[in-house]
Design brief:
With 327 residues, the chain is an alpha/beta fold. It is built from eleven helices and twelve strands.
Length: 327
């Protein structure tokens, strides 16, 4: 039987050859690790649906963030859980808010670590929605002032970057103008530009105590079947002043990541969300998949689709493997 001269398997024959021709590689610099911060001292409480992730008090956060930084991960993303919630989410923009305390502590202990803060109201409101409720609905325009106040308070605490995740129309412009007006022109914005109304957020909502008390978020988060709409949302956020744009979730939306990468010459982030993380952990515990291999395959797929930045709860595990030369 005559074979063609070109044989694909020649370049797969050994690990050394495969490594030499590998098209996509993971680096610790690709990752952002998310943290959940709570009030108190000495708090390190594992989140049941997210193994290996914890509610952390500020003192414990500083220790954990130092470990993350030591692995070569350049940035963390902070989510705060307040002691008390109210209709306006007042702690979200309080000088004494939990995220504001966390930012100050991290910038004191780890000045070179990039500290990014989530800007949204859902963790702080008693109704669990991402905006102000007026006449039983989430009111877009009145929410913008609160988001701008929240972002400004994070910048004043020392945040390097703010990440509005609420999906209110016009919120990037509102945040950018508020920061610039107070002289924070150097603070960058990573916008959750294409954030879909997804079933994969379940474990996060447990961790952040942010499930809506009524209704859902389909009127402001994106409809999963749409991709052209995502491109419009990204274009609008860039016009309003976003520096980095994000697609969330990642795994079921790799086509969106690719379309955004091909359409815009800006840094693209993808959020490998809690449900994507927890599914792998659950299947690994049951012996249904090799969790380590599945993790690396997923992260590589996100990078291959075009993401420059990957926000992931796998960041520590993946970074350790990279440092050990096992990736």
């Amino acid at each position: 039987m005559a074979f063609p001269q070109n044989r694909g398997r020649r370049l797969r024959r050994t690990e050394a050859i495969r490594a030499m021709v590998r098209e996509t590689s993971l680096s610790t610099r690709d990752f952002i690790f998310p943290f959940f911060v709570v009030h108190g001292r000495g708090v390190k409480r594992e989140i049941p649906s997210m193994p290996g992730n914890f509610h952390l008090s500020v003192d414990e956060l500083a220790r954990e963030a130092a470990l993350v930084s030591g692995l070569g991960i350049p940035a963390v993303l902070l989510f705060g859980i307040p002691d008390k919630k109210d209709p306006l989410g007042k702690e979200s923009y309080s000088e004494r808010g939990i995220v504001q305390q966390a930012v100050r502590a991290l910038k004191k202990e780890l000045p070179d670590l990039c500290v990014i803060t989530d800007v949204c109201l859902c963790e702080y409101t008693d109704h669990g929605h991402c905006g102000m409720i007026i006449d039983g609905r989430v009111d877009n325009d009145s929410t913008l002032e609160l988001l701008a106040k929240q972002a400004l308070s994070h910048a004043e605490a020392g945040a390097d970057m703010v990440a509005p995740s609420d999906m209110m129309d016009g919120r990037v412009r509102a945040v950018r103008e508020a920061l610039d007006e107070k002289g924070f022109t150097e603070i960058s914005i990573m916008s959750y530009a294409a954030k879909y109304s997804s079933s994969f957020y379940g474990p996060f909502r447990e961790a952040a105590e942010s499930a809506p008390a009524f209704g859902d978020r389909k009127t402001y988060q994106m409809d999963p079947p749409n991709v052209r709409e995502a491109l419009r949302e990204v274009a609008l956020d860039l016009e309003e002043g976003a520096d980095i744009v994000m697609v969330k979730p990642a795994l079921a939306y790799l086509d969106v990541v690719r379309r955004v990468r091909e359409s815009f010459n800006v840094p693209v982030a993808a959020y490998n969300v809690s449900g994507e993380f927890s599914m792998v952990k659950a299947a690994d515990r049951l012996g249904w998949v090799d969790g380590e291999r599945a993790m690396l395959e997923i992260l590589t797929g996100i990078k291959r689709a075009g993401a420059d930045i990957i926000i992931t709860y796998f960041a520590r595990e993946a970074a350790k493997l990279i440092q050990e030369g096992r990736v």
